[in-house]
Every structure is written in structure tokens, then in C-alpha cells.
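Order emerges. One example.
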Amino acid sequence: MKVKILIGSDYSDGKKEIRVESGQVVDVPDKIARSLIKNKAAVKFDSKMKRARTKDGKFIKDDPSTVKNEAWIEEE
């Protein structure tokens, strides 16, 4: 289930700890998603995402030095 994180937190995927920051949209197992939503740390994310493009139509790549993933934007 995709959720939008409201409060930065760590969670375990069963193998390792994963850090997520406020504003990130992540795909997590349903059990973890329900727990995050119940604790008001995330909300279900139903929006459609699409690849970000330049004015020339070329794909924009993600800048790994930032928290935000610039390669994807919400469809309008």
C-alpha cells in the first residue's frame, strides 16, 4: 500500500531499518501501512504519479542529495 509519510520515522521491513522523511510517498507492506496510519504518522496515498519532464519532454532524473524524489510528480 502506498502511504504519504506525515512524520519522519524509522520502520523495519523485516530485514533492515528504513528511514522515511515527512512528505515522502513510500510503498510499504499493508501491516506496516495500517500501523503508520493508525498512529497518525502517515495517510493512504491514492494520487497518481507520473514521471517529471523538462519543457523539451525529456525525463528529469532524481537528485540523490535531496530528500524529495524529483523524478516523479503528482498528476494534475
Notes: The mean pLDDT is 85. Residues 34 and 42 are 9 Å apart (CA to CA).
